[in-house]
Amino acid sequence: MNKRTLGNSDISIAPFVFGGNVFGWTIDEKTSFTLLDAFVDLGLDCIDTADVYSRWVPGNKGGESETIIGSWLKKTGKRNQVVIATKCGSSMNASDPSKNLSKQYIIKAAEDSLKRLQIDHIDLYQSHYDDPNTPVQETLEAYEQLIKEGKVRAIGASNFSPERLKESLDTSANLGLPAYVSLQPENNLYDREGYEKALEPLCRENDLGVITYYSLASGFLSGKYRSEADLHKSKRGAGIKKYLNERGERILKALDHTAHNYSSTPAAVALAWVIARPGITAPIASATSVSQLQELAQSVSLNLPQEVINELTEASAY
């Protein structure tokens, strides 16, 4: 499988990232292990999670996803077959939603993640959300310490504004501090505008790797939701109503057409479109069954012709 280098780092990954938010949320540990084994068997290698996954589930406190991944790594011994990406900075306290990228907080969060993951280093450690109350320099100095200690290989950002991302990159360059090698933005066939207008030029200019989340628009692009009557089909249904409009119908029609022509599925085609976009390293997608994972993984080998990519881009114009 052709791998892609993540920005300016020494990390290369297959162009499909498993979203670990489902571990300890919509699937239990046993099912998670089965899916992780299948993921590696498919020749894929990057798993994305966060310390806060999945605090929102009643009875959870955060860290459940990392804990499951860590138990799987210990049980299977497959650490050298995977790239582990996790995040810090999102609130682990239900009563305090503030973000925190202070040096003290990051150092402790990294130690906690390493313990849950049962590993000695994190491959890609990402700022989950910007913290406007902490100077950029302080955040980067925390990452510098972790990198020097061998606990982190590379750093990335997620959910950053173009202004704060640029400030971070400039600070790294001016002070000789570690620089973000990647960005994790929301981006898919429907939700394109925010990334393409504001962030894509900055990422391309600075050779940042781009790992997209909500790559299937919370499942809408799978074609499973075509009317309000379908919204009860999953726990994410409530967030999909916004896609049920003329533009959403146009996108699904184009996905159906392409999927039919290439003996594929709308979900695999939607991911293949992301993979084919200039500057994209890989989309993140989650699965709750092996069959679903195998379907989504077809996107890696779909290799749609440029004219088909252009047709999908035109159909999803904003």
From TrEMBL:
Start and end residues of each NADP-dependent oxidoreductase domain: 17-315
Keywords on record: Oxidoreductase
Keyword Oxidoreductase on entry: yes
Organism expressing this protein natively: Mucilaginibacter galii
Name listed for the protein in its UniProt record: Oxidoreductase
Classification via Gene3D superfamilies: NADP-dependent oxidoreductase domain
Keyword Phosphoprotein tagged: no
Gene Ontology MF terms in the entry: oxidoreductase activity
Domain of life the protein comes from: Bacteria
Pfam families per record: Aldo_ket_red (PF00248)
